[in-house]
Structures
1.
Amino acid sequence: MRFICKRILKMFGWQLDEKQPTTDRYVLICYPHTSNWDFILGMLAKWAIGIPLNWVAKQNMFWGPFKYIFIAMGGVPLDRAKTSGFIQKNVALFQQRESFVLGMTPEGTRSKTAYWKTGFYYIAEGAQVPIALAYMDYKNKKVGVGKVIETSGDIDADFAIIKAFYQDKTGYKPENQSDLVIRK
């Protein structure tokens, strides 16, 4: 599977950044998320790199036969109307497992948003695991994991590092790219 996915990416002109965290437990965020194509590209990269990724997506993606396919692919449905306890549930999963990678898009949607959701940060902080910064840069046709950071407890300082990393990454639909801002 790894070989096939690498070949597909290469065939379409994509460069693969194959860095991975040296730990088996981390939160992986991916930015920018501006198109449905991001899912296909992200899955190709996941399999090409060999990341054992569980990924969060809105619950209404998991319908009919797609429910079973997406869950088998590592999908975790999220009911956005009932988000209470989401952070605590995922922190508990990290504490229960020796190996767990949770992938999220901080914008939470393909549309432009005024700010990023910070759940990923509080999950990583609560579970005491690093945050891996994955990206899809359509302008330069590069995809992968580029940097890993440890949370310091100072969300503003940590977010400055995250923002600096993603500053030059371009989504499929740049007009849908969310501002690199966290809600206060």
2.
Amino acid sequence: MILAIDIGNTNIVIGCFDESGVLFKERVSTNRTATDLEYAATMKTALDMHDIVKSDISGAIVSSVVPSVTNTVTRAIEKLYSVKALVIGPGIKTGLSIKIDNPAQLGSDLVVDAVAGTNEYPVPQIIIDMGTATTFSVIDSKKDYLGGIITTGMAVSTDALISRTSQLPRFSFDTPKKVIGTNTVDCLKSGLMYSNAAILDGIVERIEEELGEKCTVIATGGLSHLVVPLCKKEIILDDDLLLKGLMLIYNKNTK
């Protein structure tokens, strides 16, 4: 059984996989000041909840966009499970052909998403990852990674709006009952959810126009399940996409 961890700016996804596929996943908050012992305790708690013990773990792989946390987490893995984690970065075989100006600039999470996307779904494709930022990755019919789009994530937009206004309250990310809100909270929910759905629809449409062909569209990330049902475009929701990519990359580098 392989431990798979994705370190994002807001959340860390902890999961495990074996030959049969992804076994489970949990999300915890990213803490830039936590020690390796604290992260080890968090990982142990997550795995204990799924009845996974130390002897079950034979390897580990880590994807990270937070360099200051990467080494802390890898030390925690080694301390807890006595395995050295494979970290996505230079020298790791992915099989992905990256055509952007500077391939080294491509975030490891986007690389992993694209590896899974091209393995599992028809190309050309657009992969949407809704996290701290909302990203769009574009892969052509030859499975080349052409580039993408980065825009503000839902939670960041909400925090900015609330922090800069005096009378707007914080609210939960729930789907509004209708588009036209009749109170402040419903207006905020409608504005957030439907504006993000419109962003997804609009950007997908513009990418397809630029490519000159229809694309398979896949969405993943912590907030995608809230927004995708509100979209007019056909979008596949795959919340395990990143863990599937980590599994593919781990196997490519260890077998």
3.
Amino acid sequence: MQIHTVIELARELRLSGLADALELEVKHPDQDDLPFTERLGHLFLAEKEKRHDAMLARLFKDAKLKLDAAPEELNLTKARGFEPSHMRELLKCSWVKHGWNVLISGETGTGKTWLGCCIATAAVRQAVKSKYYRVDDLLYEMALMRADGELLKFKAKLAKYNLLILDDFGVTPMAQQGKSDLLEIMDDRVGSKSTIFIGQRPYNDWHSFIDDPIIADAVMDRLSSNRYHIKLTGQSRRKKEASLDDLR
């Protein structure tokens, strides 16, 4: 059987990684000197790597992270308000397996969303099924699903994400139904799924923001343990003096 026939057969069997590797071998015939099992191993490894890359691409597309934040670009210093050794542990994402939560707070422009997306990127790279939402958008979508009678299906889909990133928490007041929905989300995830909360409000200000003693107590109780709070400090990273040189 000729090599081009084998390549076509591999593509028919949806072994595109293996087929690509075979085509590459045709261009580099020195591979012919390798033992059969070693060549075969290289081909299957190429297929495995391509499937892994495709799986990660699907996870990133589904996660819809707001920012493309690479963990290797993170400046691990105490100047921004976090402990470098703790951050290295967070980027390993072992806490996700235990259903722990991360709270990120700080003034406007201190890099909260970037940091949250940075941690989420590290998680997705480790094949953690993740999803990003602005809190207002999530609550609005839940309201639409409720009106269409699809809320239970939507909540079941939401529960499948091992990591949920909720951004801009505390920016706008929540309606009573929104507060109840937030509690339901936390109740579905407590102890088994992880959530990253991102917002300007520090944790000790959440109770007054929720402004419903019963719901606030319930939400705070579900976050009373197994959480890590990052309080970012410093001036806004968005501030920059305008320069006419930037227009050239």
